[in-house]
Hints:
Shape: globular
Amino acid sequence: xxxxxxxxxxxxxxxxxxxxxxxxxxxxxxxxxxxxxxxxxxxxxxxxxxxxxxxxxxxxxxxxxxxxxxxxxxxxxxxxxxxxxxxxxxxxxxxxxxxxxxxxxxxxxxxxxxxxxxxxxxxxxxxxxxxxxxxxxxxxxxxxxxxxxxxxxxxxxxxxxxxxxxxxxxxxxxxxxxxxxxxxxxxxxxxxxxxxxxxxxxxxxxxxxxxxxxxxxxxxxxxxxxxxxxxxxxxxxxxxxxxxxxxxxxxxxxxxxxxxxxxxxxxxxxxxxxxxxxxxxxxxxxxxxxxxxxxxxxxxxxxxxxxxxxxxxxxxxxxxxxxxxxxxxxxxxxxxxxxxxxxxxxxxxxxxxxxxxxxxxxxxxxxxxxxxxxxxxxxxxxxxxxxxxxxxxxxxxxxxxxxxxxxxxxxxxxxxxxxxxxxxxxxxxxxxxxxxxxxxxxxxxxxxxxxxxxxxxxxxxxxxxxxxxxxxxxxxxxxxxxxxxxxxxxxxxxxxxxxxxxxxxxxxxxxxxxxxxxxxxxxxxxxxxxxxxxxxxxxxxxxxxxxxxxxxxxxxxxxxxxxxxxxxxxxxxxxxxxxxxxxxxxxxxxxxxxxxxxxxxxxxxxxxxxxxxxxxxxxxxxxxxxxxxxxxxxxxxxxxxxxxxxxxxxxxxxxxxxxxxxxxxxxxxxxxxxxxxxxxxxxxxxxxxxxxxxxxx
Length: 697
């Protein structure tokens, strides 16, 4: 859904390790009245006309809810073969008081670029130059990657985000300020090509790299540079004269200034690769409106130019491979709309969202209504979420009606037991869930962002979340028996996979106090899951090991710096991770240029590392009432109070008779204690705990 780059590693660290406190990272917009579902009564909305569209837009952008969510925005609405509204709101550059002009202001389209790349693939398929069911190696003969499965990765797998590739997200350095630097797609693919780690065609995981490969396929098959192909075969036939991929010349001059969530301008930046088929397109609202007119007209522009056949347009609108029909996922170039309460997502509505720093984009298509909308803002936020809810409720409320569900009693306990376990999101390793079966035929789903809630089964593999009133679905891959979960409320970007049954360790008592933490992490793949292994539960964890483990559970890699902040980590195998932690503000060393990587970490040192990440997210006095016992160094007291207040520890931490917490601060952190800490970082509902503490104060 999005291609989010971060300007510096500190922000990356806070967004990923502090995932547990930042619900805004993946949390959808607040629930709105009504819901979208495939079963639609004949509810009629207001007729969509130039007059009603303009009235809606003016009221929406002036509303108290919308105004804080944008600096500048452009929107175009088309219906029945004509533009019914095309307007700009706010500023393309607030400092210069430059108003948004939908015909002139250039915006970054981010992942909406994928829709246009899919169009190019479908064009070449029409010509018989690409077989969507063919192995991608036929069109990328020099491509080398590991695939241990007996089925190939197909072009269709790339289009629908089911390649099975290990996640390869953009790097922090992919956003840069050197506009003279040109990095070809081929170089990025060669350097970062991932292996296949899931059977192709089975599991949905939003994949930017897949669409990078599709762009390279367009280039190889057509014999033209990707950007030239797009100009000649998509943009020019549609009269899209203000669209391209390379940020220079008129595009740079007319580019809307991006703003962060604090309304501060973001300096202009270029991307790697320079031509980015998965997220680098530049365009205006007027130009995208021309595309919408052609797409809704069966691939033909009003002037007669055709970019796609009617059959190809229809193919691009078909959802494929969902765990349940109420939770459609992707088409060729589009994705499902927002899931609304008790409704799922309508498979009659196509959406494509995109995000880059200073750019938030939505492409909305309702084929059976001959209606399309393009909305873009130069500030990240919830503008498009609010717009979608308001637009659909006003003009097409039939798509917002609750789904009709079959009457269903409690699920058999044996069937629910098969779903029990811990799950890890395929894209974000720090997003994990625990599923437990209850005696009353329900499931309890727990995670760190929302906390525990009850799932009630309403259809085969489909459950209603009693807290969010959204759907969650489960499915099993037949051959391997792998269980996948689709939980789109927190993350619509892919499935979560149930962990393998942990085999345990010879030196870990299965009934011991630390076993649940160790075995859960083993199931999630954080520890080796092979018979005959020993864990060493009482072995102290070194400072470098602690840093490495904390970064690993967050899905972060080591630094690529050639020099290190600490002299005593040079040559150490974990030096890149220590350096990354330094760059993120997680560690500071001893002030003399030393880190002591092989010295056992104390429990209070571990607390300070976590505190350095979390401290800006809490009021200074939130944990002031936590009393400590057992001797904590003054420099660690605030950190230890936080750890105790949030429950980020294992069973070794106890309260004295007078209610003080003995954190055993000066003691070495053992492996079993580290396992408990990492488990709590992944599963503890910190948002809820913080909310309760703030309410008490």
